[in-house]
## 1
Amino acid sequence: MEHTGLRRRSIIKGGAWSAPVIVATAAMPAQAASPTNPDLGVLFDGGGGADGYLNSVYVDLGVPATGTPMTLQAPLVMTLNVEGLLTAATDERAFTVSASLGSVSRGAYNVSTRTTTITWTLPAGTKLPKVSTASGVPDILFTFQDGESKTTTGRIKNKIVITSVTGGTIVTPSSTPIDSSVVRDVNQGAASPNGIY
């Protein structure tokens, strides 16, 4: 049997090729558009002890609660200052600092500003979940010793200020600088959740 004319497959193929092309565009979230500079959120989770006495605080890092967990495409470097609040003191309150991921370096104590600068570096490939106080979230732990000053009367109390971030942009709770005594600790049920340690 001989077929002449158009076959059904030819008509379908022709229709597919001649159908108008619809181009859809959608707004991309900033994180997806700029994977080497993601939006970030931080939490201060401390205040379990009285100000100026034994105390500790975690600084938790992740994507904002409304964001999507991601993996860092480039290193992220956060700079924080531990500031002494007893203006008459010339001594530094003893504290240790450690990170759950990445590396931490500690600068020398500056007597005139009562400040010690901490640099936290997270390597490319670090997974960033939504920021929270849960385990598995990248964080830094500051453990403060007794704050009794050796150079003046009183106790050295401290606050932490995030001064800069490269490789990301902190958007929650605000942009840098972020002062722990202004944003306060996330756990308002702690003994002293005022962001001062």
Note: Confidence is low (pLDDT under 50) at residues 6-13, 15-34.
## 2
Amino acid sequence: MITKLEKGALRSMDGFAKRTEEKQQAILRAAYDLMTEKQSRFKISELAKRAHVSPVSIYNYFGSKDQVIVEILKQMTEEQMSWIEQAIESNAPFDALLVEILKRKIQTAVLFDETITAIIQQDPNWEQLATRGYTAFARLIEYGKAQGSIDSTLSTSSYLRYVQFMQQAILSDPQFSIENMKETMDVYFHFFLNGVMKR
């Protein structure tokens, strides 16, 4: 049997956990807003002020600014994968689904600069998450084939390689600048949807 004292302690722990979660989410929301404004070019002091927490809280919860950024990108990737799965389960039209995904990617392009790209490439967990993301995209390709929306004679791996090669080409291009990220992504997705031939 749980005593009144123990019940009070449990309620106190629940309240502490709730406040901790609220602070963590406030930090992530504030960091996302700062990233849309200045990518990685913000300080912990700015983040603390925007989130209405102390800098110590940020370090206690996440360890560093880099880990805050990684957590934001991780949650965004997880959300996108879940959204793809739910859309497929609901039999959403492939064309509309693909366009919506591409729009989301373009909208998130403004978050990236060279520093953030380096951060995610160095994170030991990012490769596993990226692999899951490609798995979700592979399922989307199979879904498009089943609906007759894309060429079913091409292998799913070839679609995935195409996406990977394009991403690598963009990131390795010495003429590429972060300032032109959105324009570059627009062109990339035009090629994906329409190819290179004039229609």
Note: The CA atoms of residues 94 and 144 lie 6 Å apart.
## 3
Amino acid sequence: MRSSKAIVLIEVICASALALVTIVAIESTLRSKPVLQWLDLHRPPYIPRSGLVDIRVHVEKQMLHLEALAREPERRVSFVGSSSVVNGIDEYDVKVALKAAPKLQPRNLGLTGMLSSELSPLRSLLVSDGTVAVVYLYNGFSFSDVRNPDAIDARGSAIDDLNHEPIAWWQIRRAARFGERLLSERLWIRRYRNLIISYVERILASDIEPLRSPFDYSVDRPPPPMSERTRVPRPPVSSENWVRRAYIESSERDTTLGYSALSSFCDDLKRNNVRLIISAAPEALFGRTNPYAVGIDFDAIDARIEKISKQCGAYYIGRDKVFEDDDANFVDEVHLSAKGREKYSKAIGAKVDEVLGR
């Protein structure tokens, strides 16, 4: 009997050891530079609201892109923010505008639905060793206590969340979720599980090719119809919607997790001699009346950010309201058209160049 139990124990130990070795081998392979570069080159395209790519896959592929760029040995200026940055910054057009610092490489590090509370947890990816400056382009929803539910697994920090909101001894489900998130953050095969499945499916279907465009929207997509560009306020969605709630908290509250996070990030960059430039990402004026942003005081948000910038030594660039009033610059409320992207990239590039040349 004892012999049988010993054999079972040995089999369990051997199976566990084999599983551990397999996981380590897969992790090492995925994290190797050649494999990471291939995965980054072949990341799946995303067409908003098409249903063709799961939003979780989209979030994970953006994080993988940041992982790949973080390993590049280059002096850079990083453009950080939400999908307004993903679709609003053309690295080539910014590069042309950087005349005072021509050797700097502009990098678009936008992440869909990114909030300022994510700046510090993602610091190692946003601020590589060669980063000279970070340009943070915020939205009207960036500074709340809200979390983006679609991005918690791929971009969140379980430790930071625990420090912000400790787990009570009786909250068993939260404790289990905390353990699950810790595992997800440590293991790539867990953190990027939806993206990895996407690669496997595309390979099996012989439907894998290099990503043709880093932008979510077709270059020939026109502005929305006039019926969607009304300046007439529409009824707001429920504040239970995380985007609506994020807009409200950013607008109405002077102190939030988001505002505090920006201040801390700014102080951290200052200690490490990395310049921080802050400006509002363009949001169409016709979008101020949509159900998510209606009634939001963008001037109040801008005033708070300008004050934070002065306090921590960041450079603040004011909102371009003339640009935001031109409907042709947008394909929807917060995303630029190809024409708008070219104009904005050159304009913000010139302003950043002026700051870096001081």
Note: The beta strands are 76-81, 105-108, 131-138, 275-280, 315-317.
